[in-house]
Fold this sequence. Notes:
Distance between the termini: 22 Å
CATH class: Mainly Beta
Largest sheet: 6 strands, antiparallel
Strand order of the largest sheet: 1-2-3-9-8-5
Shape: globular
CATH architecture: Beta Barrel
Structural class: alpha+beta
Helix content: 10-25%
Number of helices: 4
Amino acid sequence: xxxxxxxxxxxxxxxxxxxxxxxxxxxxxxxxxxxxxxxxxxxxxxxxxxxxxxxxxxxxxxxxxxxxxxxxxxxxxxxxxxxxxxxxxxxxxxxxxxxxxxxxxxxxxxxxxxxxxxxxxxxxxxxxxxxxxxxx
Length: 136
């Protein structure tokens, strides 16, 4: 490929292979109990700098498809739609106190909630499936 032709593909985003993803741009790490949930790097990039995060109460029940966290940036207010059902066991108060941590490290320190999953397996995407969604 010639150096003067721009690559039409967006820059490579971090999509960790070990996680599962929803079409609503949430990730789930169900290799641990309770499962950890956050927003993807793509979602964080689309929202821009987060300024406020409204987290749910620990102990509350969430169903897949529920709006469980509210994320606010200068661009928009966007809900995190839960990709799973279960009981909320922990919330990341550090992310609520400093929302920029979600933009800077969405798969690490920027996690949002931990959920004790129901027994039924959610239908989630693997990393390749999620990448196809955001590239289309």
